[in-house]
Amino acid sequence: MTDTPDSSEPKTPKIYIDADACPVKDEAEKVATRHKIQCLLVCNGGLRPSQNPYAEMIFVPDGPDVADMWIADRAGVGDVVVTGDIPLAAKVVESGARVIKHNGEPLTKANIGNVLATRDLMADLRAADPFRQGGGKPFAKADRSRFLDSLERAVQAAKRDIV
Fold this sequence. Notes:
The chain is an alpha/beta fold.
């Protein structure tokens, strides 16, 4: 299992993926392979292990937010986290990691407060109207393309963060 590196070794960027419901795992693995960096797919199980030598499956116990806590305990400066989980994003942004949502939207110190507030507002609206239906728009090919571009830029920036 991967943990914190030995302090005598230079830090290399890692891509952490909150993998249970991630629609862009394959794209993230492609970016990791291109940069020859480790891609950690963290999940509760149910995913097939990747054959990619840069991808490592991390299986955590079942339970609320166990995968999120595993990522939050390890991700920091020089790392990129791929997640749609806004509370997890807020934690790792605070620790200095770069965060990309599945649609390619970066979450940063400048915007995470507004994103959290919007998330909370929408949860309150849904709770107030139990008949409110709908969800997000379907994941499109353009979202995949935007994600790839955004992850590429985030990995390049993460490499600069640790120099």
